[in-house]
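Progress note, sequence design subtask.
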């Protein structure tokens, strides 16, 4: 029998296709049998094949993998020379073992029988990798970060100038504050913890909070520019004087800046600690909370004048005061009357207060060269009811400038 070449080729081709189909069917049946109730061929995790494992075996594999990772620190956080550790147990960090087992077991089992067979064949040929994720307690992590924050956070501390008995100035360095924002840290750690990528190492960068009074503000300060003392009797009025004066302690006024007495001392209320004492209201003696505070503003006014600073806002009393010469008082009232002055000197000035219990002294510290060798005196001309106040600027004992400040007119108290 003669068979043409074409016919022979078709027979060979059909035979080959039949063979391939037979092999494929046999292979599919073989794969299906091998994968019965086990993780299918080609599945691996962490560089290890887990094909052929049943669920219990896979659970042990993932548990062992998680435990080996969790032997390490979850995070090591550093700030300068300090190191902070977060352990997995601190945040209940754990591998999601059951989820990983189920994910591995579902491969090749989520479609129709034909789809599953194709998926299993594809996995056997090309492979598929399972990665276990993890969970942790977010509140526990927040608690850990708050502990670190509390260890790092530092309030800024102003530099301090302290007047010594010999007139020299001792300077205490300022402290830069630190504030650690933990929310970005928690957000950065989250994906690492959830993928069990530990140990996480991170440098902490707290925000720096410079104090208001820095070392540079005090650097050139070398002496007393001006001071003034007034006296008082102990008691409720004296307590008010001491309380108000304490708010002036350590006040810094930079070159070109102003200071408001009312702003720095604050409201004179019972809640603030002030007591009832003698005041003058509408030209009459009276008792009211905060009596005596005007003696503090008046003492400051005289110290400011003698230090070469510039009054911006000043009001005299209704009647002359007993604790300062006529025309050299400065009354204040919450929300109504303020005493404000400006620093025209090249360097900052700094207030310091001495209170002996019956005498108040306010010192204005600064850089003596700012006055260019000048000294200052105050004189009053006119009557005690109508005084005019002048500031005399002297150089080498000679008056080089006579500065008119103001003229006051006092009234007689109605109930004297």
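Output:
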């Amino acid at each position: 029998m003669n068979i043409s070449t074409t016919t022979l080729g078709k027979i060979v081709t059909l035979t080959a296709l039949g063979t391939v189909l037979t092999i494929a069917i046999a292979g599919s049946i073989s794969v299906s049998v091998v994968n019965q109730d086990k993780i299918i061929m080609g599945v691996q995790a962490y560089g290890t094949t887990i094909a052929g494992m049943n669920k219990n075996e896979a659970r042990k594999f993932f548990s062992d993998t998680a435990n080996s990772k969790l032997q390490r620190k979850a995070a090591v956080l550093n700030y300068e020379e300090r190191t902070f550790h977060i352990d997995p147990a601190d945040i209940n960090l754990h591998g999601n073992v059951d989820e990983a087992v189920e994910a591995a077991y579902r491969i090749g089992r989520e479609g129709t029988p034909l789809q599953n067979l194709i998926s299993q064949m594809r996995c056997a040929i090309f492979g598929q990798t399972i990665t276990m994720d993890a969970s942790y307690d977010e509140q526990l992590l927040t608690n850990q970060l708050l502990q670190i924050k509390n260890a790092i956070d530092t309030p800024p501390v102003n530099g301090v100038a302290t007047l010594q008995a010999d007139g020299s100035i001792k300077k205490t360095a300022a402290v830069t504050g630190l504030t650690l924002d933990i929310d970005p840290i928690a957000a950065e750690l989250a994906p690492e913890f959830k993928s069990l990528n530990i140990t996480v190492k991170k440098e902490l960068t707290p925000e720096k909070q410079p104090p208001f009074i820095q070392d540079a503000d005090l650097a050139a300060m070398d002496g007393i520019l001006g001071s003034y003392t007034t006296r008082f009797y102990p008691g409720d009025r004296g307590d008010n004087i001491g309380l108000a004066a304490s708010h002036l302690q350590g006040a810094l006024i930079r070159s070109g800046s102003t200071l408001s007495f009312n702003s720095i001392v604050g409201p004179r209320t019972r809640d603030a600690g002030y007591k009832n004492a003698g005041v003058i209201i509408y030209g009459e003696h009276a008792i009211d909370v905060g009596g005596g505070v005007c003696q503090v503003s008046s003492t400051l006014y005289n110290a400011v004048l003698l230090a070469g600073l510039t009054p911006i806002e000043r009001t005299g009393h209704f009647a002359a005061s007993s604790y300062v010469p006529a025309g050299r008082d400065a009354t204040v009232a919450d929300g109504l009357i303020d005493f404000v002055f400006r620093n025209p000197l090249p360097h900052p000035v700094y207030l310091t207060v001495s209170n002996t219990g019956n005498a108040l002294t306010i010192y204005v510290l600064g850089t003596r060269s700012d006055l260019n060798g000048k000294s200052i005196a105050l004189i009053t001309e006119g009557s005690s009811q109508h005084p005019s106040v002048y500031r005399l600027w002297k150089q080498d004992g000679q008056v080089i400038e006579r500065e008119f400040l103001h003229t006051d007119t006092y009234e007689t108290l109605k109930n004297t």
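Residues 18-28 have pLDDT under 50 and may be disordered. Work on this subtask will continue into the next period as scheduled.
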